[in-house]
From TrEMBL:
It comes from Paramormyrops kingsleyae. This is B30.2/SPRY domain-containing protein. The keyword Lyase does not apply. Residues 948-1136 form the B30.2/SPRY domain. GO terms for molecular function: ATP binding.
Amino acid sequence: MAHSCNEETQTSLTVLLLDYLKELSDEQLKEFKLRLSLPVYKELKPLPKGQVKDLDRTDLADMMISCYSEADALNVMLKILKNMTLNDLAERLNEDLQKCPQAGSELGDILEQNTIVSERPNFSSAQGGKGGREEEEKWQKDRGKLMSSTIKCTLKQKCECVFEGKAKEGQPTLLSEIYTELYITEGGTGGVNDEHEVRQIETASKKRRTEDTTVKCNDIFKPLCGRKTPIRTVLTKGVAGIGKTVSVQKFILDWAEEKSNQDIHFIFALPFRDLNLIKGEYSLIELVHHFAPDLKSFESAELFRYKVLFIFDGLDECRLPLDFQNNESWFDVTKKTSLDVLLTNLIKGNLLPSALLWITSRPAATNHIPAEWIHQVTEIRGFSDAQKEEYFRKRFSDQRLASRIITHVKSSRSLFIMCHIPVFCWISATVLKRLFTENERGKIPKTLTEMYTHFLIFQTRFNSEKYMREYKTKPNKYFESGKELLLKLAKLAFHNLEKGNLIFYEQDLTENDIDVTEASVYSGVCTEVFKEEYGLYQDKVYCFVHLSIQEYLAALYMFLSNSSADLLMTGVDQALKSKNGHLDLYLRFLLGLSTNSSKGLLKRLLGQTRTSSHNSKKTAQYIKEKIQENLSAERTINLFHCLNELGDNSLTEEVQRYLNSGSLSAEDLSPAQFSALAFVLLMSDEELDVFDLKKFFRSDNEHCRLLPVVRNSKTALLNSCDLRDKHCKVLTAALRSNSSPLRELDLSDSDLQDSGVKLLSAALGDSHCKLGILRLAGCRVTEEGCSSLTSALRSNLSHLRELDLSYNHPGDSGVKLLSAVLEDPSCKLEKLQVGRCELTEKCCEVLALALRSNSSPLRELDLSDNDLQDSGMKLLSAGLGDLHCKLEILRLSGCRVTEEGCSSLALALRSNPSHLRELDLSYNHPGDSGVKLLSAVLEDHSCKLEMNVDHSGECRTRPGLQKYSCQLTLDPNTAHRRLSLSGGNRKVTGGEEQPYPDHPERFDSWGQVLCRESLTGRCYWEAEWDGYGARIGMTYKGIERKGLSDDCGLGANDKSCSLSCHPDSYFVYHNKNLTVIPIKPSGSRRVGVYLDWGAGALSFYRVSSRGLTHLYRFTSSFTEPLYPGIYVDRNSSVSL
């Protein structure tokens, strides 16, 4: 065929292009289209495969000319013909192009650049050794720049547009024109949240964003929070539909347009939805070449000397096992293996450790990668409450309509929370606009199920009208075919929800009886529900527009296809078995569909459809019974949402009435009402300033159902609530929550032990944790627990300012660990309390080093009730006297300090008089001379010190609690008649009735006796019991004496507290509440009682030859003196 080129008209170029296209056979044309989707020249954009696949030759010529110029279109064709080895055709086209100046103007430059890439010059030694190497280095640099430009050109073409409407046919919109900087926050160091995303939305919707560490999309590889170590792997998490893929697209686009991150030479975007399609074995270099064929001329040694970034988008869509534990180690980038082995070794750093990695995922899937391989976690967040309102006001020009919609959405907590996701705002706007502006029948939706059903009704109706206009189809025919396909999609949704699949391929559709062509047609007219789109590399995939749509349709499928009378209760049981709650929202929809109002809506959606009858009241009662069980907080909260879908809010309304009346009593609440109270407090818009769990304390531990409320509290007082290490899991979830306002946590007098402290410490180092005050007094913490705490305190992320470890057993070694961390610039601890920790002078030397440190933040130190003695004071004073020491408050009460120790302190205060403001030396033995030495320091005008030397005396030099020992005698006038006193009224025995005279202070029904002495200040006494058992405690004098009421019993009322001693167990009683002590008597029958009246603390100890073992500490604000008291069983005795 002869061709001619007429320069007088552009038409001739178009005809020329079309003529050559016509010379291609059908098979050649198919290959030509495929190659069009691959980069040919870096200046020219490849055409999406999906857009050219079905075009005939004329339309293809039009598209090529519209995307390129006429000349460039011909140049592209010439290049492709050569690549296809159609040399005769290419030669003839080249001759025609030579006759057309406008076609050949840019060809030379393009071919010249291509030569740089493909042909390697001969750098021989004849060129001169050094000169040859320099030329080779320059050639390699130019080659790298050119190939980087090629990749940038390719990726720019793929990423610069987003499609509105149907992904494959919608109108492209430039991403740069519509992109708004997404709200990305620092997300911790790998703490994985496997809650259902709706629960995460519920907590995130409360987050005060001013406290977040925000990250710009282009800065995710920059270390945060003063971190110095480089970042290799970043994990960005976010719930479905929140904008993870758009963030990736914008990052790549800015790099390709050379706006950011130009230190990176190559970006390889490998979405998991595309990786799922890879079959067989690959080497890493082959995998790169598969996704970036432009780089095939690069060998591995050459390519990987550059800085590269791998982006793995959509970890939640991954269908590979990612077996990090069992996969073999792989180090060779040129050696083939399975894709799973390649990816796990790339992430672990065995392959290409110099590469950067960016992985995106929904939160529940982040546990597929062990936290140790993730160096930085970021999170993409949704709309704040203000942004939700802004969305609706921008969406509608009619502001009255916008206000009405906002008011309605706010009236339903469930709807308002879901609007945290932008796509749900769109769903709500779609539904509510129709209902508020058109003559739609039925009530306004108040539940999630009603909202989604209305949405599908409107979408199918709108698309039915559109489809009939476009395809001239009769309404009934379309309705039936649309209904049939919707049910097939529901089946697809259900079976893949079970598997955790969100992305579907043609094979998945076929397996669910969905014709691919039919799905494409339906997708084209109902893209708001189910859409067909293309991966980054043009492979066709299908998905629901949002996970919640899939969950709704899955519930719809089960509701319509399962006629079992137990369907709903079985659904409840299945959802409760889920560890991460992935069926929570599905269950809400399933229950919501069973209501009469939903059945009416289903008729509008699907026509006359047979549905089984279900008893909503019976189901609601079943859920209430489940709520009474010991479920996790997340599952319990979802069950309350389920009750809301069923229209049963009786439990929460009951609790709300209790709260409003101000007469809420823990004893009056059932287990279900306790859970309802937790739900009400958690769902409240108001944060709790103080949550005091003691107000709800019950011996049966039902109060522990309220622990999740900590998430919504600024201060949580959980002390003396019989908490154990197992409860720390709930607390750590609150500490890690990015929405928690928690700043102060008191866990004192809980049996947490080192295991519980280890759990808490891991959360303290999380970036989301903003806790400033932590009290762990009397929690059985040893050196091991201190080690965990010091790791948290060293964390750059820790905000902890106050730590109370009093009444624990850290030992000198534990305090040594804490002292070392005080010298770390990262540590922010200002107040440390280690009173009554059995410390010796050995800890003082390391504490002095911390005080000398210029970077130490410590301002208050409490060492009270430790036998530091004068030798310890000498060591500690060395730190106090240093000018770097900024300590302001020092408590040394009861530390066995004498005149010698006072001399050391006085010398230190003269050396550094300006900082210390308060010095507590009470309950020591400074003597007159020691007091005189310290008083002389106070005369210095620069000294602002206030000093306390009360309750001093020689007795204070005795070791341990013996320094507070007091002599007691039993009061015969209080003794019950079946108790006999002996040994100078220091022994009481239960047995035969005694002829005591009547007395108003005598117990007439309870076998008890009080001591004569009233106690205040610090006092210690011991009692030894024998026989079956006894109660030993203290009480106000006002305890009742007559009758069998609890007002008389030691520990059975709010006036007293007692330790119940038995051969194999201890119990503590106060105000009718019983606390089991985990420590056993182990043969010891002696107990010690220590009262620190001023501090409001009453402590019980087991006394043995090994010393004292702390059993329990009762805390209160004492308002009057306390009297020791004893209850004795028959045939038992107690001696003071």
